[in-house]
Amino acid sequence: MSKPVCYSTKAYSTTSPSSPLGATTIERRQPTPTDVQIQIIYCGVCHSDLHFARNEWNFTQYPAVPGHEIVGKVTAVGTDVKKFKVGDTVGVGCLVDSCRTCPNCQSGFEQYCDAGMSGGTYGGTEKWLGTPTLGGYSQSIVVTEDFVLRIPANLDLAAAAPLLCAGITTYSPMRHWKVGPGKKVGIVGLGGLGHMGVKFAKAFGAQVVLFTTSPSKVADGKRLGAHEVVISTDEKQMAAHAGSFDFILDAVSAQHDINAYLNLLKLDGNLTLVGAPDKPLPVAAFPLIMRRRSFSGSLIGGLPETQEMLDFCGQHNITCDIEMIRMDEINGAYERMLKSDVKYRFVSDMATLQAESGKREA
Ligand SMILES: [Zn+2]
Ligand SMILES: [Zn+2]
User: Fold this and answer.
1) Which ligand is nearest to the CA of 100?
2) Which residues of the chain have pLDDT under 50?
3) In whole angstroms, how far apart are CA 306 and each of 132, 189, 316, 328, 330?
């Protein structure tokens, strides 16, 4: 395939693990026949963005542009694009491509592609240009139509942005483990992921129990839909729920005692981890052996399920609780995110990037 022509667009990037993010100009490919060009209106701020910007997963190439909770309007489509037209409201999540041929891709589980995350929205490979992919802290992006999603018209666009990562990360495992009416479901941690877990578990009709270490989060947990909030450091409160849960979604990224939660599962109950602690978690054998419990993980969702999730959110009017920031507030937002000082997701308004002229060289 011949290299497509490129165009320039404003973005926010970082040039090293210790540099702050700043305004720059990046190159994107002009839409090929199967591409959709999107004006980015809002981009959510995920904890992964921070790990990536600071090379904490050791695969970042600089300059790096994070951002994989992208929503905007279609500004151009290639000649072969069938599903989208100029003016459509669309989203792009953590993936902009995949190998498309492995068994997982063929089954619509692109997030588990045998080629790994080479199709990642940032830190992947831009296969037309042979360069690293650049994420959504940008005014515009070009994505193959198969990886573009429809955003239901009734949803607040800014509050819908984090559905593309935080939303699908919690929706997918709850669907897989059949959370629904008659099921008792626990959500561990009330952050960007956990608050969406509570909303989805409630919308699926389950009995929802939120676990938090912070008494200050009890009222908010109930407002978001939890039927009960347990302070996880209170052994008596924990013991009252022993052996009673069908499913627990663990959204905690810090070190914590996983066995305390495994003991709360009933026969054949499952605990799924969606947080990513940086060190291994010790798992004791007996909580698993007793009652045939299982412990698993889950990563975002494939394209079909992500669209299903967005449509479900449209039908049930579910969005994220967000704090809007200007793009030039991103470095401060990262510091607040590290302290879990956000309710419950930052979203950057990309119109604020227009005012920024390339303050520094890329
Ligand atoms: Zn994310
Ligand atoms: Zn694949």
Assistant:
1) 2
2) 360-362
3) 24, 23, 15, 30, 26
